[in-house]
Structures are given as structure tokens and as C-alpha cells.
Amino acid sequence: xxxxxxxxxxxxxxxxxxxxxxxxxxxxxxxxxxxxxxxxxxxxxxxxxxxxxxxxxxxxxxxxxxxxxxxxxxxxxxxxxxxxxxxxxxxxxxxxxxxxxxxxxxxxxxxxxxxxxxxxxxxxxxxxxxxxxxxxxxxxxxxxxxxxxxxxxxxxxxxxxxxxxxxxxxxxxxxxxxxxxxxxxxxxxxxxxxxxxxxxxxxxxxxxxxxxxxxxxxxxxxxxxxxxxxxxxxxxxxxxxx
Length: 242
Ligand SMILES: [Zn+2]
Prior knowledge:
Bound molecules: zinc ion
Largest sheet: 6 strands, parallel
Helix content: 25-40%
Number of helices: 6
CATH superfamily of the largest domain: P-loop containing nucleotide triphosphate hydrolases
CATH class of the largest domain: Alpha Beta
Shape: elongated
Radius of gyration: 24 Å
């Protein structure tokens, strides 16, 4: 047998699973990865909870994980904007989950739901291992973009790994049309400003563009008046010194 043919045969035995690999919790059957993205208020958590609850009703072992950065609601439950609750693990990263959850309990798991996935830096490696080595079904929900419509965290990185990708939409708060983007109403510029309806609103493309222009203009006015106040303070201080 030529060496190239031999390597082809050994590759096909690895791909077909007859190469002595195995050792998975689910007898070598690979899992699945499903990704749910969209702007804020699009119902991502609701869709994730619905999926996890229906898997649980079907008798599968499920668990929900969310980032411990998001403490807007109860710390040990995932709560959708419409108030539906589900118990969950609030963690700073995903790599510590298996150990914290317990190796035996992890081995029995069928489905893992991850909410606010944009906050987990180790999302890609976790999804790969959970689905492809451990045979789990992983359902990931998170923001695809931040308030400037830049890729947020690692959510987009797992799309090439996914069986399915669902982009949900919200309702534009200005006109009621379908909203694809999240507009930040306040002047903070850090990417991870965790907040709800007081800080963000879902908008259509037109109102995103208009809103960014208005916010940009407002910020310029604020910064100008702020530097004016600073100058006045300096003048007062100078006056006090002299
Ligand atoms: Zn609109």
C-alpha cells in the first residue's frame, strides 16, 4: 500500500470513528451547537429558555450557564425580559464549569444553555470540547454586536462551528419596524456597560443611523460645556490662590 493511500485509509478510520478514539460520554456520538444572536430585547433569552425547558420536558439532562458579570436580575437564575425564570450557574468563565458542576454530573448532561455568551472569552474552546469530545448539545445565546455594531466578545467566532444560527429581531422603539441593532442612550463609551431599557433601545437601521448622529452631537455639546466648566474652575482656583 502506498504511503498516501495508507494515510487516507487511517484518516477514514478516524473520521468514521473506528480508529479506537471514542471515550465520549455519549458513546462517541458528537453533540450539536446552536447559536441565537440578535440585538437587545429580541427575545434571545426567551428563545434559549424555551429550548432548554422543552429539552428538559423530553427527559434530557439540562443546565443553564450565564456570566457572573450580568447581575441585573437574580444571581442564580436566568431571567428573560418578560420575567420567565430558570435556575442557572453564574460563572466568570466556562472552562471552570465542568469542575464546579462536578465531573460525574457533567458526564450525565445532555444539553448546556449559555446565556449572555458575549461575556465569555473561552466560548470557542468550550463549545468545541462540549459538543465534539463530550457529545453535548450546546445552545448559545448572545449579542452579535455591541452598541457600535462591532463584533461583541466571541459570539461570532462560534458561528463556523454551529449546526444552526438564528438571528432574532426586536421592535424599533422609534417606529415599530423590525430592529436589528442596539442603540446606547447614554454617553458612556465602555463596551461592556451592563444595563437594560434605561441605557439601551432596539432600533431599525434608519433610527440607528439617526440616533448615532443625535448622540454624537449631544456628546460634543456636553464635552464643550464640560471643558468650559473646567476652565471656569481653573479661573476660580487661580483667583483663590492670588
Ligand atoms: Zn425605526
